[in-house]
């Protein structure tokens, strides 16, 4: 069960890296935005015995955004269907310290674009075919879903079992705090419009 203690502002929530997650809830119809910005403060603590994607945001269509330990550094990873892409973060994330992670997600030319920001600085973008990483319901009559952390362990396929491979997706270990979700309007989908970053960083004493 997640534990609430010290955070960036007030109390944060600790996820144990085994089976903890936070369910943001679901909505029916088109109440959730197609284009959105999601921001959260994260203090990663998991130390990997085997490399896995530690899920930060999990979506109803089984796509996710997370992190994987890459030697002494971290990579941001995103997975959708059979496509998996990553961004090397170098030493931008340090275990034991809070960092702000922002994702600006929008549709452009029929593809989903994920603009990634760490502590208010753009580190790159990932593009996936189709409308994945969606906050909207998969089909009519179903509910959308968004969780912080992975809501269940990844099931191994027959081929994973045959070749002795472990599931790639794992639970997030560490502290999270101050999650925010915003609808993006058309004029806000620009590299110079990371509107949510600077005000939150100033409020939490994390920079100008």
Describe this structure in words.
The protein is mostly beta strands and 208 residues long. It contains two helices and 14 strands; from the N terminus they run ββββββββββββαββα. It has helices at residues 158-162, 197-203; strands at 3-6, 11-16, 22-25, 36-44, 53-59, 64-70, 73-80, 83-88, 99-108, 111-118, 121-129, 146-148, 169-170, 173-183. The protein has a seven-stranded antiparallel β-sheet with strand order 1-2-14-4-9-10-11, with no helix packed on it. Strands 3, 5, 6, 7, 8, 12 and 13 form a seven-stranded mixed β-sheet that branches. Strand 1 (3-6) and strand 2 form a beta hairpin. The protein is globular and about 40 Å long. The N and C termini lie far apart (35 Å).
Properties at a glance:
2 helices, globular, seven-stranded antiparallel beta sheet, mainly beta, 208 residues, seven-stranded mixed beta sheet
Number of strands: 14
Q: Give a short account of the largest sheet.
A: 7 strands, antiparallel
Which series of helices and strands comes N to C? EEEEEEEEEEEEHEEH
Averaged pLDDT: 76
Shape estimate: globular
Q: Quaternary status of these chains?
A: single chain
Strand content: over 45%
Structural class: mainly beta
The portion of residues assigned to helices is under 10%
Q: Biggest sheet, strands in spatial order?
A: 1-2-14-4-9-10-11
The helix tally amounts to 2
Concise summary:
The chain is mainly β and 208 residues long.
How does the SSE layout of this entry go?
Blueprint: E1 3-6, E2 11-16, E3 22-25, E4 36-44, E5 53-59, E6 64-70, E7 73-80, E8 83-88, E9 99-108, E10 111-118, E11 121-129, E12 146-148, H1 158-162, E13 169-170, E14 173-183, H2 197-203
Parallel strand pairs: 5-13
Antiparallel strand pairs: 1-2, 2-14, 3-12, 4-9, 4-14, 5-6, 5-12, 6-7, 7-8, 9-10, 10-11
